[in-house]
Design a protein that fits this description.
This protein is mainly α and about 400 residues long. About 50% of the residues lie in helices and about 5% in strands. The protein has a four-stranded mixed sheet, with helices on both faces. The radius of gyration is 24 Å and the shape is flat. Mean pLDDT is about 80; it is low at about 1-30, about 45-55 and about 360-365.
Length: about 400
């Protein structure tokens, strides 16, 4: 039996030498075998020669909702060194093509999941230089240097080309690996994991010299982005401004201290923070399972509300968990068609597809009509918000 599998850079040439007695093309024909070997080697060499143009055709750049990607692993390391950041390697085992509008299912999950969350985008841009590439030697976005780093870092990749989705790898500008993070993490889990890895390199978990020259509120906000909540509170001191009270409320929300959040928000008088407080109240209602209040609150919001897309997503969840599935689907469909360019449209499209078609169809690779945005569907095992609560 012939086993079909993905061929990666470190296996593409060797794979052609494997004996495959059932292959009707090869069989016992020695010249045919030699032809297959030569084709395999040529494909491998071509992938190396075309590597230089891969980054210019990086399809993930078209789908990136805010993170600032490097164009090569060398550029990522250079920027990390110059800017005092860490490198975040985002690898895919999926092979795309230059004229495709698709990225891997795992990366679809990443951008529709945690990458929709503004906290994640801010933290990555603050302390990391991300670089996206593909592990497949025949892929458009293959990067030999980055793939070799992944193989050295992730032991499973040394022995198999079938690892569905490599985790993200965090390393220093000098190439030292600090650890890895699952691509299927929730936003909260990803933030927690990245913060822990930052603390592996103390200089990246603290304010740098340029940040220390900023005003107190800006410094506190950066500490909040870095997930150092205690330091952010300490930095605010006795500041009684609306900005300070709003940040205290945000920190309380992160800690699920709802009474503290409400108390802090009551002290905010600057109207520019009101919409931010409103979406945090919606988060509270979702976190506490108060679905009826959540539905009522979102129904009063207009489409001009700055966080309308995010609020609409949570309203759909409230209906879904109230066993009003059709109503949930209608709400998500309205959200997607109203602002299809919004990152939250990606999340709604993902969630709607899984809610409508069920987990028995885990990867809808060839059913684009089922996505209102014409996207490939994602693993339902990562649809955290649809799981029973």
């Amino acid at each position: 039996m012939i086993v079909h599998r993905r061929i990666t850079s470190w296996q593409s040439a060797q794979y052609s030498f494997k004996k495959q007695p059932e292959n009707p093309l090869v069989g016992g024909n020695l010249p045919a075998k030699r032809l297959v070997v030569c084709l395999g080697i040529l494909a491998y060499l071509f992938s190396l020669s075309s590597n230089a143009q891969a980054c210019d055709e990086n399809v993930f750049l078209k789908f990136n909702p805010g993170i600032q990607l490097a164009k090569s692993v060398d550029e990522a390391r250079t920027q990390a060194r110059e800017q005092g950041k860490l490198v975040l390697l985002i690898a895919s085992s999926y092979r795309s093509v230059s004229d495709s509008d698709a990225i891997s299912p795992a990366l679809e999950t990443f951008r529709a999941g945690p990458l929709v969350d503004g906290r994640v985008v801010k933290l990555i841009n603050r302390r990391f230089v991300p670089y996206y590439f593909e592990m497949d030697a025949l892929a458009t976005m293959y990067d030999k240097s980055a793939a070799e780093i992944m193989v050295r870092t992730i032991s499973e990749l040394r022995f198999s080309a079938t690892m569905p989705t490599p985790p993200f790898v965090v390393m220093t500008a000098d190439g030292k690996s600090l650890g890895d993070v699952s691509v299927f993490s929730t936003a909260d889990k990803l933030l927690e994991s990245l913060a822990l890895l930052l603390h592996e390199s103390a200089e990246h978990s603290q304010l740098n010299d340029s940040e220390k020259s900023l005003d107190v509120i800006e410094q506190a906000n950066i500490l909040f982005e870095l997930r150092d909540l205690d330091a952010a509170i300490e930095m605010l001191g006795n500041d009684q401004s609306s900005a300070a009270w709003f940040l205290r409320g945000m920190i309380a929300c992160e800690r699920s201290d709802w009474a503290e959040m409400k108390g802090a928000f009551r002290m905010v008088t600057d109207e520019s923070y009101f919409s931010g407080m409103e979406i945090q109240e919606i988060h509270r209602l979702w976190a506490t399972g108060n679905y009826q209040a959540l539905k009522s609150r979102v129904s009063t919001l207009s489409e001009e509300f700055p966080f309308w897309d995010e609020a609409t997503y949570y309203a759909g969840l409230a209906y879904y968990h109230s066993d009003e599935i059709e109503r949930a689907l209608e709400i998500w469909e309205k959200g997607i068609t109203t602002h299809p360019e919004s990152p939250w449209a990606l999340r709604m499209d993902w969630t709607r597809g899984i809610a409508k078609y069920g987990p028995e169809r885990p990867l809808m690779m060839n059913h684009r009509p089922e996505s209102l945005l014409g996207r490939r569907f994602l693993s339902p095992h990562s649809a955290w918000d649809l799981k029973p609560r």
